[in-house]
């Protein structure tokens, strides 16, 4: 490839210029052509709706009052931050994202470190570990609600009965914890997969050299594994955040947003459906996006370092 | 060991290798490592079984009778029955699950096919003969994936209402296509980047046009990558709830939406619910295990191999 593109100036440039220019332009479109349908499709269906949301967020628009539609400036945003329910949704979203991401990241790292060693039935263990992630999110939340958390016949209280423990109404007493634990159960496998891939991409020469120099397992972990894993940890945290900030299925199914578990995506849905307040729902949507953009900026940077390594290889 | 004083590259290396051999022979390192591995194995098995247990319990409960499923303490060894599945599929309890299951299958399969038709040419343009600023295009695709669905939910709902697309399959299919396209482009690009460029050059030298090249060169060579991409897109579409819940009601209702409206009946229903959850998860479990090796790559949008 390199040889053909480094074309020494053998051609008398002026004479051929127009022809070559045309040819290049034609080639440009031939190259760009296959890309365009996908690009246009994505722009139309993801960027335009967001612009519309931005506009509607500045409007007074409740479908219950179709005659009273107009521009209100930032009042929808003021409402989001002054209304106690909505403010709580902002905090619930943050708390849920941080707790679920951090705990599943730590658990995922632990499991990945275990799985990175040689032992009997490693493939089976990996397969078993992935299973929670492959249960449809709604189905998982529904089964956890009735099969595991239910105070009368749920698995947790069933096990407590066996050891003569107390009976607990898990979702009512610990609503946020119940949602968090169910999400952690689903997301630990995801983190495990990414971190395991990271562990397996550690440069073998460096590890061998460390072994030769008699480095202790802790030192290997601290000075080789952790620095190497930093980017994978970041990537797991950021991708996890992006998905969990948007979580709707678990909140909707486990608690239907009651008991102080409503997060922003659930609130948007609720405002849209029950209150029919389009302007307010849009303002909430914009706030979710702003939060996501903050995370996404870091996420994109992390991906781009991994990506540029791959490209330069 | 005197060779070390004259450090020429190959000799130092061999000296170090020899040293490594000596040391590991004198230290009981390998034995300790083996013991460590065994311990790690035991812990790993315990943790994995703990994580897997809810899945196992779900399947087991779905095979119990309703009274056994609602037992407290849990009846692990209760007799197995298919009653839960019979109640779920028999429409005795209300609506039949078949239309939503078929809708889900249709939305997932058709949107996945559309995604592939759009993503393979795009990935070709980004990997094989990259257009200018192709990395920018890649990151544009990625950034759209970071825009939460709720950001566009309302306009999509209003548009659907205006053009009469509420509760239709095609609208859902179009949206799922847009939702999965960025992932597919990233995955397909990383698969195509691994193919030796000489193959594509040969095709173009033989006078194959873009369509021909895609059909007779790209698709056959990248078929394992295409399969993995398809499975990932299928999983995401099949799982989707928020859009389906907002935009469909009766005609185009998908399986996840059906599942949320499932628990309305009185009396014991845990076996039935478990059966429903198992049936709906089965396609994803199959697709996920089939794509196991490529799962990470798909979930990390191709950033991790």
Automatic annotation (TrEMBL), chain A:
<feature type="transmembrane region" description="Helical">
    <location>
        <begin position="127"/>
        <end position="144"/>
    </location>
</feature>
<feature type="transmembrane region" description="Helical">
    <location>
        <begin position="35"/>
        <end position="59"/>
    </location>
</feature>
<keyword id="KW-0813">Transport</keyword>
<dbReference type="GO" id="GO:0005886">
    <property type="term" value="C:plasma membrane"/>
</dbReference>
<protein>
    <submittedName>
        <fullName>Trehalose transport system permease protein SugA</fullName>
    </submittedName>
</protein>
<comment type="similarity">
    <text>Belongs to the binding-protein-dependent transport system permease family.</text>
</comment>
<feature type="domain" description="ABC transmembrane type-1">
    <location>
        <begin position="90"/>
        <end position="299"/>
    </location>
</feature>
<dbReference type="Pfam" id="PF00528">
    <property type="entry name" value="BPD_transp_1"/>
</dbReference>
<dbReference type="InterPro" id="IPR035906">
    <property type="entry name" value="MetI-like_sf"/>
</dbReference>
<dbReference type="GO" id="GO:0055085">
    <property type="term" value="P:transmembrane transport"/>
</dbReference>
<keyword id="KW-1003">Cell membrane</keyword>
<feature type="transmembrane region" description="Helical">
    <location>
        <begin position="89"/>
        <end position="115"/>
    </location>
</feature>
<feature type="transmembrane region" description="Helical">
    <location>
        <begin position="278"/>
        <end position="300"/>
    </location>
</feature>
<keyword id="KW-0472">Membrane</keyword>
<dbReference type="InterPro" id="IPR000515">
    <property type="entry name" value="MetI-like"/>
</dbReference>
<keyword id="KW-1133">Transmembrane helix</keyword>
<feature type="transmembrane region" description="Helical">
    <location>
        <begin position="183"/>
        <end position="199"/>
    </location>
</feature>
<keyword id="KW-0812">Transmembrane</keyword>
UniProtKB/TrEMBL annotation, chain B:
<dbReference type="GO" id="GO:0005886">
    <property type="term" value="C:plasma membrane"/>
</dbReference>
<feature type="domain" description="ABC transmembrane type-1">
    <location>
        <begin position="101"/>
        <end position="291"/>
    </location>
</feature>
<feature type="transmembrane region" description="Helical">
    <location>
        <begin position="217"/>
        <end position="238"/>
    </location>
</feature>
<feature type="transmembrane region" description="Helical">
    <location>
        <begin position="170"/>
        <end position="188"/>
    </location>
</feature>
<dbReference type="GO" id="GO:0055085">
    <property type="term" value="P:transmembrane transport"/>
</dbReference>
<comment type="similarity">
    <text>Belongs to the binding-protein-dependent transport system permease family.</text>
</comment>
<keyword id="KW-1133">Transmembrane helix</keyword>
<feature type="region of interest" description="Disordered">
    <location>
        <begin position="1"/>
        <end position="33"/>
    </location>
</feature>
<keyword id="KW-0472">Membrane</keyword>
<dbReference type="InterPro" id="IPR035906">
    <property type="entry name" value="MetI-like_sf"/>
</dbReference>
<protein>
    <submittedName>
        <fullName>Putative ABC transporter permease protein</fullName>
    </submittedName>
</protein>
<feature type="transmembrane region" description="Helical">
    <location>
        <begin position="107"/>
        <end position="127"/>
    </location>
</feature>
<keyword id="KW-0812">Transmembrane</keyword>
<feature type="transmembrane region" description="Helical">
    <location>
        <begin position="269"/>
        <end position="291"/>
    </location>
</feature>
<dbReference type="Pfam" id="PF00528">
    <property type="entry name" value="BPD_transp_1"/>
</dbReference>
<feature type="transmembrane region" description="Helical">
    <location>
        <begin position="139"/>
        <end position="158"/>
    </location>
</feature>
<dbReference type="InterPro" id="IPR050901">
    <property type="entry name" value="BP-dep_ABC_trans_perm"/>
</dbReference>
<dbReference type="InterPro" id="IPR000515">
    <property type="entry name" value="MetI-like"/>
</dbReference>
<feature type="transmembrane region" description="Helical">
    <location>
        <begin position="38"/>
        <end position="60"/>
    </location>
</feature>
<keyword id="KW-1003">Cell membrane</keyword>
<keyword id="KW-0813">Transport</keyword>
